[in-house]
Amino acid sequence: xxxxxxxxxxxxxxxxxxxxxxxxxxxxxxxxxxxxxxxxxxxxxxxxxxxxxxxxxxxxxxxxxxxxxxxxxxxxxxxxxxxxxxxxxxxxxxxxxxxxxxxxxxxxxxxxxxxxxxxxxxxxxxxxxxxxxxxxxxxxxxxxxxxxxxxxxxxxxxxxxxxxxxxxxxxxxxxxxxxxxxxxxxxxxxxxxxxxxxxxxxxxxxxxxxxxxxxxxxxxxxxxxxxxxxxxxxxxxxxxxxxxxxxxxxxxxxxxxxxxxxxxxxxxxxxxxxxxxxxxxxxxxxxxxxxxxxxxxxxxxxxxxxxxxxxxxxxxxxxxxxxxxxxxxxxxxxxxxxxxxxxxxxxxxxxxxxxxxxxxxxxxxxxxxxxxxxxxxxxxxxxxxxxxxxxxxxxxxxxxxxxxxxxxxxxxxxxxxxxxxxxxxxxxxxxxxxxxxxxxxxxxxxxxxxxxxxxxxxxxxxxxxxxxxxxxxxxxxxxxxxxxxxxxxxxxxx
Length: 494
Ligand code: GLN
Fold this sequence. Notes:
Largest sheet: 11 strands, mixed
Strand content: 5-15%
Number of helices: 15
Bound molecules: glutamine
Shape: globular
CATH topology: Amidase signature (AS) enzymes
CATH class: Alpha Beta
CATH architecture: Alpha-Beta Complex
Radius of gyration: 22 Å
Strand order of the largest sheet: 1-3-2-4-6-5-10-11-9-7-8
Order of helices and strands: HHEHEHEHEHEEHEHEHHHHEHHEEH
Structural class: alpha/beta
């Protein structure tokens, strides 16, 4: 067998059955990375020796668990004691973390083999990885196109089978949008489900770790391993994790027929690429065929999602990124202070000027402005009130449905450079994803078929949104669609 052409669960089982070994599997992925990463730039750093050491421990029985021997890639904003954790920023280029993020530690505690850190938009700000200080990642379906962002290295790695699964973080769509346009499954759980300890903060009230994989079952298994309260993260939820979370074939428990909500706000005339509309229509048919009731729900504040998100996210980032001052953390300038200038201020300002890229600076300035005295009520407070209304829309909608079906993105992957000079157009990429973060609810993007552009098939996704902490049901509803369609089976030719 080729260990790189399986699902995570198949590979795990093959290693357990000794059809292959953890070392063979890890070496196969490392070879594939060596072959394809130069073209894709999916990994910012590979920790091959460490991965092989871990794989060996699995093969000799020192390490066991639910993920024993399975090679996984992590996003560059997740701390790990091995290698550097750079957030794809010049600011943290040489940062070595003294600890490992809880989510990653939980994977390792179940025997996962971490392969390396994937490229991302600097500090997770962006939708394309074009904001990385280490170059853009490429979409394996068409290397002239972006793999989405900010977790674009993880989506690219997943779509190209450079790992059996990968982790991402989703603050406004950074798992679901890249998953959608690279043709893989991308899952953002409920806020608080997975500890953020060791996840470098962008916007703390929105950030959530989640997964990329080829199947809903793989997603569910990884979730089972990572979910649950962590005393080190006070915002992690002390809510029981169902034992059968990983069992996506179980029955979808509902009082009556399954009710799938659809909202007109996601289906405006002309807003979506025809392939996105076709994927959505097909998904609706799948649920109808399965006996589900299609219920119209209203999410009237959806249009305020983007402005609300960009106030909340920039405000929080302006505070979170204050710690990169060239002393506590981050790039330290070597330019001497000009005569008469306060050396501390010089160090701070110059380190930030050199260490941060343009988008990060833009957001710090925007967020500082939104929080500044006299403007905070006009912008930040208003955004918080709007956020409450958006969450309220979902509360009402979930009284009449079990999950909401909608597109993940308006279209397939765009070309590298296409939106580089237009930050506002780039921000609009998140139109269907940000509201889930604002409301804290879980969302999953599933491969929904293909658009064709420049003679190439380009994946599009469908998204399902669920009630907070109702992931077990959401994943089973997602599995129902996957079982009937299987769009994720097709792989790019690389
Ligand atoms: N694209 C959005 C942004 O630029 C979302 C990023 C994210 O989810 N990390 O902020």
